[in-house]
Amino acid sequence: MPKPAKKPVGAQPENPARLIVDGAVVANQWNLLSLDEEAEISAASLAPGKVILPLSVWLELRNELQARRGEIGVWLDSDETADLIGDYAGELPLIAAHFPLFTDGRAFTAGRLLRSRYGFTGELRAVGSFMRDQLTYLKRCGFNAFAYQGEQGLEGLLDSLQDFTDSYQSAVDQPLPIYRRRSLAG
Amino acid sequence: MYQYDEQDHKLIRERVAQFRGQTERYLAGELSEEQFLPLRLQNGLYIQRLAPMLRIAVPYGLLNSTQVRRLAHITRKYDKGYAHFTTRQNVQLNWPNLEDVPDILAELAEVEMHAVQTSGNCIRNTTTDQFAGVARDELVDPRPYCELIRQWSTFHPEFAFLPRKFKIAVCGAAEDRAAIRAHDIGVQIVQNRQGETGFQVFVGGGLGRTPIIGVAIRDFLPEVHLLSYLEAIVRVYNQLGRRDNKFKARIKILVKALGAEEFARRVEAEWEQIKDGADELPPEAIEWSKRFFPQPAYKSVNGGHAEAVLRDQAGSDKAFSRWLERNTFPHRIPGYQAVTLSTKPTGIPPGDVTDRQLEAIAYLADEFSFGEVRVTHEQNVVLADVEQERLYELWQAARKHGFATPNIGTLTDMICCPGGDYCSLANAKSIPVAEAIQRKFDDLDYLYDLGDLHLNISGCMNACGHHHIGHIGILGVDKKGEEFYQIQLGGSANEKASLGTVLGPSFSRDQMPDTIGKILDVFVENRQPEELFIDTYNRIGLQPFKERVYAKAS
């Protein structure tokens, strides 16, 4: 194995009051629990309502939380790969992927694999420090929810979802690369 | 040459609009320096020592004369009237204003050009052999594959924020003129025993501060799987490549850390999952891409007669004969030859051309080579399809515009980065070193006697001047604020790629021409008849060079 990459320096994901889901600004109904080494989260101590758990916590409590399945989501840190959720993805209503820095592009791959390989159909939420200018790429990798941190005029960001209206290569939003659409059509 | 359709035009227009918005937000203070950085880099825009620098994409080095004319116009209108051909087969402007860049991109888009992914931590412009499609030693024309890779990698949503920059090169000939083993991925087109086309795939090559020659992780990949295999490699890299240290973030470090076998195993495992998916390249797709690179309308020429005329002309004009010998390249079609226009007369920074020269290139391309131009990774320009009957005429015209220095492949045809004169990363100047060496070795007969000899100069360890893979490599280093130069010997970039070995302590700039002279003396004294520098070096090793260069004056 290569020397493991250190945890990137960057803030833990937060819980903004509003976010973009499916192209509209909506109120945030989920409470994301960040990974705090001091805190011990147990199935019993978990408050009622919709909760997004860190991957490690979710993996541990998954069986105990079966009864609350529809209201338990999970978030991946940037050094956690989609295969750690794997086919469990199909049972989750929400998966969040964390951008500790907007330049850390691992979550793009995580999103794409969750959608195309592991059958995830729920809400795929980008959390952390991603940028408006990455929205179309995120959308193409299967993200349909965008939880910006800090004060943002979210309505003003919606346009960026349409920065590109077509694409060359296949991705989650477009199953066929452009050469297939062109050459095989004509 | 690839022709845009409405979808290409639309995508590039949308990109220009997006970047215009980003630039406006940056200038209005809505985007921080840090946020704007990757956005501008992916649009080719650097902030350099003296001014911004804009790197314009030339996919696999191919341009048409209309595009070259537009480049000339842009250098005049927005810059100081000259441009620079890079070792990545791209074009750079050294003095644009940040505020003008969206307008420059809009002007480029009109002629099917852009600056997409010429920098930043994404998949860069795919490069190839400048003699693609015309070389006699070519198995298969690499350009249709390059174009498919271009489309696959352009705005790839998953790979726009990789750990580091990512470079792919494709070679379709026996001789590797694309330096594929010095790239993150090198693709060598091969055929198996059944005559099917496929690829040998190299990964983990690269220069910079940790130079490594790429290793083959697959000997035969059927062509139908090219894109899915590339996708698997880049996906493994995006997930596992180091992001904590930019100097250890290239794929070569990952390949080295995992070992090539383990890396290949992971790639194969990923590829197994996607190889039969949407990214398959069915024969129709490849045929479609090939249609953009048709054979030009060559005349049917009596090759024997054309060669005889040429021999006569060469016999009666020594200057022409020299140029013919060094600056032209055999062509697979009888009666034709490929021509390299040298951008390296003494005293001009290698790769620099003025707006008028750009216009001259466009004119020469229209007049002599079906309106098409190629940029070489040695920073020269190629007209690939010239009738032998018209070489004499072309030579005279090229001479008039300063392109006929008969030095291609010789010591003075050096690769040289812009160095400390322009680049904010450089530790030392490189252009004056190139010039001093060119001045000292201006005797053509001596240069020809030395034969093919690649001298590469970089102004810092980022190695844009490819010093590791020069037969003689020069690296600018900084010692307590003073510029010094380290010499390496024995590098090569072709199918027998190797990295140079450091000769010993570095030299001041003044010492460089004489030191190179001593190295050449050792070569001349030790060479067997017709032997090339690199072969003599490989036979006798570093020691004799070292002894001569560092000998104490007695």
From TrEMBL, chain A:
Stored InterPro entries: UCP030820
A Pfam family hit: DUF934
The protein's name: DUF934 domain-containing protein
Organism ancestry: Bacteria, Pseudomonadati, Pseudomonadota, Gammaproteobacteria, Cellvibrionales
From TrEMBL, chain B:
Lineage top rank: taxon: Bacteria
GO molecular function: 4 iron, 4 sulfur cluster binding; heme binding; metal ion binding; sulfite reductase (ferredoxin) activity
Record keywords: 4Fe-4S, Heme, Iron, Iron-sulfur, Metal-binding, Oxidoreductase
Top enzyme category: oxidoreductase
Domain Nitrite/Sulfite reductase ferredoxin-like, first and last residues per copy: 53-111, 348-400
InterPro entries tied to this protein: NIR_SIR_4Fe-4S (IPR051329), NiRdtase/SiRdtase_haem-b_fer (IPR005117), Nit/Sulf_reduc_fer-like_dom_sf (IPR036136), NO2/SO3_Rdtase_4Fe4S_dom (IPR006067), NO2/SO3_Rdtase_4Fe4S_sf (IPR045854)
Nitrite/sulphite reductase 4Fe-4S domain boundaries: 119-273, 413-549
Enzyme Commission designation: 1.8.7.1
Pfam families found in the cross-reference section: NIR_SIR, NIR_SIR_ferr
Protein name according to UniProt: Nitrite/sulfite reductase
Lineage summary: Bacteria, Pseudomonadati, Pseudomonadota, Gammaproteobacteria, Cellvibrionales
